[in-house]
């Protein structure tokens, strides 16, 4: 259920156990920002409130799985939240990769959301090299879209690759997410919301193969 009511931020922070004067709180156990968690809980108005708060500086932050708020929107299939982020001037981390080497387009390719995929592909910060990024399993967004049968996504990616030919002349370094000290530190606690609960690429491929 999408919750879209005005001025819910304070109540939301209390529910999440965050101090009211700490908009940049890291929520346990996964190190999520308030923005990650608001998206996960479908709190649309909280997302919008956070994006206009000057005191909120973790707009582009990653959780302990290396995922940004846009990763969360895509893995949780929150189209409205993803659209809000992509249209926000404050959100710049459109191409960042998580610890599995995936940017948000990998997850959109599995999900099959054509409108959000096209919006991401048209973003000025999302370059050709980001479209062609391989995750740690060797899968690109277009290969995942093809395996999942999302032909419209495949076509949108092909069109974007053509349109963005040569757009990587001005290189901007793709900062890698920092890895936690141990695998246990990276994993959300059992029973938690799990900011990084996206389906692994190998599982997506396996599910789409004929029996």
TrEMBL record:
In what ranges is there compositional bias, type Low complexity?
Answer: 179-191
Q: Compositional bias (Acidic residues) spans?
A: 166-175
Keywords in alphabetical order: ANK repeat, Repeat
The answer to whether the entry has keyword Phosphoprotein is no
Entry annotated with the keyword Repeat: yes
Name the InterPro entries for this protein. Answer: Ankyrin_rpt, Ankyrin_rpt-contain_sf
Question: One Pfam match, by short name?
Answer: Ank_2
> Per the record, which residues fall in region Disordered?
161-211
PANTHER family, per database record: ANK_REP_REGION DOMAIN-CONTAINING PROTEIN-RELATED (PTHR24161), PALMITOYLTRANSFERASE HIP14 (PTHR24161:SF85)
Q: What is this protein called?
A: Uncharacterized protein
| Organism this protein belongs to | Symbiodinium necroappetens
Tell me the lineage of the source organism: Eukaryota, Sar, Alveolata, Dinophyceae, Suessiales
